[in-house]
Amino acid sequence: MSQNNHEWEMTNIQFGFIVYEKCYQTNELRTFFSIEDNPILGDRYREGRKHWTRMENAQSFRFDLKCKKTGELVKFNDLMGLMYCTGCLPDCELDKLRLQYEAANTMVIVAFGFFPESLEKHIPPKKLGILTDYFNQRRNSRRSRIKVLPFNLIKDLSKCRGEFLHDVNMLTKEPPAPRRKPLFE
Amino acid sequence: MVESTNLEQIKIGKLRLIMLMKNIKQALEASVIAGEEILDTSFEHVYASDLMSDVLAFGKPNSILLTGLATQQAVISAHMAEFKGVVFVRGKLPKDGSRNFAINHQLVLLSSSMDMYDACIKIDSALHKRTKIKTTGSKESRNEEMVLCQEFEILGDDFTSAGVVSTEIKSILKKIGFDPKLIRRVAISTYEAELNVVMHANRAKVILSVTPYCIEVIVDDAGKGIPDIDLALQAGYTTATDEMRAMGFGSGMGLPNIKKNTDQLQIQSEVGKGTRLECKFFI
Amino acid sequence: MTLEQLCNKIDLKKMSQFTDKEINGVFVSDMISDVMAGAKSGNLWLTVQTHKSIVPAANLVDVSAVIITSGKQVPPETIELASKHDIAILSTDLPTFEIVGKLYAIGIQDS
Predict the structure, then answer these.
(1) In CATH, which of 3.30.420.10, 3.40.1390.20, 2.40.50.840, 2.60.40.1840 is domain B17-123?
(2) How far is C12 from chain B (nearest CA, A)?
(3) Of B51, B69, B124, which is closest to C101 when you measure between CB atoms?
(4) A174, B179, B234, C59: which has the highest count of C-beta atoms within 10 A?
(5) Count of domains for chain C
(6) How many B-C residue pairs are in contact by the CB < 8 A criterion?
């Protein structure tokens, strides 16, 4: 928790879909934010040697944070989404931190960038600090605190079964499945 | 026949909420995305959900859907579930695909900046207000379930507007599917009362309420009042001016004609204050 | 009004273990993204969603309670996680629109 003179609020809220595409040739995953009206599942197309298949459309939103006091604007268009760590992987660095924070009555939330770019270029820690501040500032209750950590602490992304705070299954005509598949399987 | 089913259910006393899309538009300060010309469509249930599997599984026909899900799936699901329209809350706006689908399938699409709680409250309050009006009615109707209650206003001294309220009431009753003979009696009585207001009062409130057993029209004016009600009920008695009679009104047939067409008529009047007519038509 | 007072006025089933909290308004949505973008601290969150991800979302935006409407069965793992994070999960058989009417009738205003 940082002491600072900022008071953050959400601004430029835009609803849309996080689209997940996968290339089965190279096993690459790529994600992007889309504001299309009617997401299409199973969309396939070729791009050079890669064959992209649309895997999932998760409903989500993007936003920026603006300081009420200074007017400073911090863009979060590189944030794909937030995930709750379920402690699914043994010896996962993130899980170890989660346990430490939970002992101090703080819930850990994992910030994801888009793929593949965020695998190379992480969301700056300063921004995650600002996001942490935002969530804590707006809390009235003394129930607990929030800590936002980067996803690169996860031991093995391809096996992670953390819970994304996205909306999936909103559009289906079936009741939602009890357990989600790992997104990076 | 949808209409006869409606009538049947009203007769057996089952509560059916009947509101019009335009009432919702007004209550939610909503903008119309599709279906401007079918805002007179009535609906019977409200379903608030963002989960389309629920809409399909539990939504009742003739509902409206309140949702924050501004995708084409919401509109398609509403259509599949036989809904009459969709209200997008929190200022969400569906795109052209949804709009075109709605136009092709006779669905009303509205968008309101209110959040879901506010929107539900506004609709609930509109219904609640209607139930409250019921208690101001006469004793017999107090314990009945209200099916519909709507308020109108008539402005005096304006002959051109005479007939607006009775026409509206007629079309509402027609939509519910009542017997045309019954509708005719209600429409004539309301029109006569409306004319009386235009001729003799500054303004009046008209309340139409429909219970499973009875249609009631209350016309409450702030006018000069009737000094002798028994005399006014005699055919030919008139206090109309020459000008009014020149226009073909004021032949003194108003109240007698209302009495003839109603099953029960109550008149309360106080000179200088106003007149209240309670016309009942048994279903 | 607090959660305990609410439960005394309206028939709501307590699903998780929680400490009493002050209620500040209501937010109705079945979408986690809407809740994260729009709910305020202390809101009662009304939803038909029962998946356990509602718990971290509820905690993140600091709602006073989640009310599961329409008699949806709440999975044990959701309840367990809620109790762990001191998130109140309440449940009603009434559909969302009807429970809103009841909340409003006992004086819970929009925030």
Answers:
(1) 3.40.1390.20
(2) 18
(3) B124
(4) C59
(5) 1
(6) 64
Per-residue pLDDT in tens (0 to 9) along chain A, 185 residues: 445 689 999 999 998 889 989 888 888 889 999 987 666 666 788 888 888 988 888 889 999 999 999 999 999 999 999 999 989 898 999 999 999 999 999 999 999 999 999 999 999 999 999 999 999 999 976 678 999 999 999 988 888 889 899 887 666 555 445 445 555 54
d(CA A138, CA A14): 20
Interface contacts A/B by beta carbons within 8 Å: 36
Angstrom distance (rounded) from CA B168 to CA B190: 10
Rounded Cα–Cα distance for residues B224 and A145 (Å): 69
d(CA A143, nearest CA chain C) in Å: 7
3-class SS string, B146-175: CCEEEEEEEECCCHHHCCHHHHHHHHHHHH
The alpha-helical segments, DSSP class H, found in B177-220 are 180-200
For residue C79, is it within any domain?
Answer: yes
Strand A145-150 relative to strand B19-20, pairing: unpaired
Owning domain of residue C72: 3-105
In chain B, what are the domain boundaries? Answer: 17-123, 147-282
Q: Which residues of B touch A170 (CB under 8 A)?
A: 50-52, 69, 73
Does residue C110 sit within a domain? no
Nearest chain A Cα distance for residue B109, angstroms: 15
- CA dihedral (A82, A84, A89, A92) positive or negative: positive
Chain A touching partners, 3 or more CB pairs below 8 A: B, C
* B203 touches B154 (CB < 8 A): yes
Structure tokens at C24: 């500040």
What ipTM was reported for this prediction?
0.91
Of A15, A36, A174, the CB nearest to B53: A174
Taking only residues 69 to 88 of chain B, the set having a beta carbon closer than 8 angstroms to any beta carbon of chain A reads 69-73, 77
The domain over range B147-282 is classified in CATH as 3.30.565.10: yes
* Interchain pair A173, B71: CB under 8 A: no
**Sign of the dihedral defined by the CA atoms of residues B43, B49, B52, B55, in that order:** negative
Could you tell me the sign of the dihedral formed by the alpha carbons of B12, B179, B126, B20, in that order?
positive
The distance of B116 to chain C (nearest Cα, Å) reads: 5
> Residue C111: inside a domain, yes or no?
no
DSSP string, C14-52: E-S-----B---EEE-S-HHHHHHH--TTPEEEES--ST
Mutate to test the interface with C, among A141, A144, A166, A179 (most CBs of C within 10 A): A141
Chain C hits for B115, CB-CB cut-off 8 Å, are 27-28, 38, 110
Confirm if B271 and B224 have CB atoms less than 8 A apart.
Answer: yes
Cβ of A173 and B50 within 8 Å?
Answer: no
| A101 CB within 8 Å of a chain C CB | no
Residue C21 is assigned to a structural domain of this protein: yes
